[in-house]
Each structure stands twice: as structure tokens, then as C-alpha cells.
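Cast an eye over this sequence plus C-alpha cells and walk me through the fold:

***
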Amino acid sequence: MSRISVDLTGKVAFVTGGGSGIGRGFAMQMAACGAAVAVTDLDGTAAAGVADEIAAAGGNAVGLPVDVADAAALDMAVAATIERFGHIDFLFANAGVLGPAEFDAISAADWDLVLGVNVKGVALTCQAVASHMMARRQGRILTTASYNGVRAGAHVIPYRVSKAAVLMYTRCLAMVMAPYGVTVNAICPGVTLTPMQLSYAEATAAEQGITRDAYLADRAARIPMQQFTDIEDLTGLAQFLVSDSARLITGQAIAPDGGVMTSS
């Protein structure tokens, strides 16, 4: 049985939404394994802060402010990354927003924002890197979807719709990139206590007239394993998907229970 390589020395990762949460976790994990990392985020200060953390730990990173809904900004960030590090091996198209929780609060502007970041932003990010990986005939692309992309619900509807679209886009892109030796996969986190999720929990708890801790305790109790997903769980999964051991795993989404949903 082959073993997963954790030595990513000489590899380069490009991460969107890397200033916090899952994106930060992925950037830190890739750097810990030896990869150079371009940390991008709408919040340029946050991106630079994560890059500084990596450098302080002995790694190699650059922080870049990027709006993933802006194709020109993405192209510039990709070009800057290649100029600095020589190439890009791993892309983590992770940037996302949540949007309104309640159906009657959704506006046209909310649809534009959520779909613009979560769907168009993922597509533009992948497109900005795809030709580079095609030319090199190698690479790994990961997108952040969600268990909400395959699970209907009465809350955060634009978010659910956007993540369902990310899953379909991932499968389509996998078919485009497979002949070039590039794998494309979506990670589908369960409830993960990122800053975005904690902000949602705070707002929901206030609406219910309870504390955030009480809300989170109730939410955890409704999860079959009665615990939230750890960012470390997701970064471990991501580490496998960028490894040589995953060279034939493409066009699939890893479900929150560890199962694999194959595409057709």
C-alpha cells in the first residue's frame, strides 16, 4: 500500500479566502509540509497576517489582496505568484460568503453577492490557474463546497444553491482537466467553527434570545457524532487530495461523513 507523501518541498499553493478559517488552515498546513504559499483574501491585511505567520514559522509565503469576483485581480495575483515562486501546483478555491439566513430577508443584492463570490468567484479562480496547469500537465485543484450543497433546508438558501453549483462546476472542470493530468475535487465540510460560522451562530442566537454557547450546544447535539468538524480534519483531507496518492481521484466530492459521491 502506498503512503501519503507529506513532503511538499518545491511545491506552490495558491489559496483564496486564506485570511481566516478553512483557507488559513489549508495555507498553514501546506506551508508546514514545505510548500510555498500565496495567501489571498479580500481582506489584504488578513492575508498578509497569515503570510507573516507562515514566515515566522520558517515557511515561504506572500499575502495578496484579491476579490475573487474580479477576473483581472485574479489574473494579476496568479501572475505575481508565478513570477515569485515559478509555478503553481495546488489551487484551493475556498473564498466564500454565507448570506441571509431567512427566506424573507433575501434581496436581489444578496443573490448577486452570494452567487458572485461562491460560484462566479470559484469559476474565475479556477480559470485563472487552469491554463498554467494545462501547460505543465500537472496540478491539483480543490474547491470548498458544503454538505449544504446536497442538503435542502429552509435557511441560508442562496448559500445552499451556490454550493450545489460549486459541486457541479467541480465535476465539469474535472472532465476538462483530466486529460492534462490535473485532478479536481470538492471538499464538503460539515458545520465548522470558522469566523463566518461563529458570526452566523451569534446572530441566530440573538434572534432566539439565547446565548451563543447555548445555540452551539444545541446545534452540536443535532449532529450524529455530536461534534463539529475541525479545521484540522479538513486540512488533513486536503493534504491527501494534493498528494501523489490521490492522482486518480478526480471529479468527486468528499462528503462530511467520509463517503465519496462519484460524478457521472
In short: The helical segments are 21-32, 44-56, 71-85, 108-136, 157-177, 195-208, 212-221, 231-242. The CA atoms of residues 144 and 245 lie 20 Å apart.
